[in-house]
Specification:
globular, 259 residues, 2 domains, alpha+beta, five-stranded antiparallel β-sheet
């Protein structure tokens, strides 16, 4: 009788252990799926040197502005904000969107509502714009964002907005070899990247940083391609993060406004 009881206890313990192991393995399995499909797409990056704004182009319109309907250059974020408010729109985000010439005309390619306002620049020269490869950030008529190096850009009449700048910060997930860790080439910098879920992330540094650290920040978020927009003149309006710079004197401005 005692042997029967002992055997039953062992069987019961074995049963509990077996089911506990199954439950643990199941929990680990579903946790893995959650990490892969839920949180694995975009890494959570904690670096208070930078401030970001993300845009889902399928849900929000990221628009590139240069001149108002009177042909006057907007120049500052504040001027654009006032112009939008006149038509009942509220500015949610704005950032200078590329380099410009002495007359504030866009440096390199600028496409606005499908019209080429400034042609693609494939020449060589001095300055950040001409650090090769430089690139193009564009949004298609079907609201698909993309970044590519200049030599690979093709205007197939499906591009709604585009701005050219340089240098590329990330190319297929790699930081260009010309950027060196610890570089003393420090400046305020702003740029744009494409996240793994195809949202667009705009970033600006709060303090002076080098190209390598700025590129690495986009890489840490999972971006495969990212483009430098500009440097010490950079400004951003991101009220949701209590960052509201409305000054500046730019060429192209990229903005998101409600309807």
């Amino acid at each position: 009788m005692q042997r029967i009881v002992a055997s039953g206890q062992i069987s019961y313990i074995y049963y509990r252990m077996k089911n506990s192991l199954k439950a643990s393995l199941t929990a680990v399995f579903f946790l893995s799926l959650t990490l892969i499909f839920g949180f694995g797409k975009i890494k959570q990056v904690d670096d208070d040197r930078f401030i970001t704004f993300t845009v889902d182009c399928k849900k929000q319109s990221a628009v590139m502005y240069w001149r108002d309907d009177q042909g006057k250059n907007f120049g500052s974020i504040g001027n654009l904000q006032s112009w939008l408010e006149k038509s009942g729109r509220k500015l949610l985000f704005a950032m200078n969107g590329g380099m410009y010439g002495p007359d504030h005309s866009p440096k390199g390619l600028f496409i606005e509502n499908g019209l080429v306002r400034s042609p693609l620049d494939t020449s060589s020269g001095n300055g950040n714009f001409y650090i090769k490869p430089n690139g193009v950030f564009y949004i298609t008529n079907s609201a698909a964002p993309a970044i590519c190096d200049t030599k690979n850009f093709q205007n197939n009449d499906q591009v709604k907005y585009a701005t050219q700048s340089g240098p590329m910060l990330l190319i297929d997930g790699a930081i260009p070899a010309t950027f060196k860790p610890g570089s003393t080439n420090l400046n305020i910098r702003n740029g744009v990247g494409i996240l793994p879920d195809n949202r667009v992330v705009f970033a600006i540094s709060k303090t002076a940083v080098n190209f390598y650290d700025f590129a690495n920040y986009f890489k840490s978020m999972g971006c495969k391609n990212a483009l430098y927009l500009d440097g010490f003149v950079s400004r951003a309006y991101i009220p949701e993060k209590k960052w509201t710079q409305t000054d500046g004197d730019f060429g192209v401005i990229i903005a998101v406004a409600d309807k």
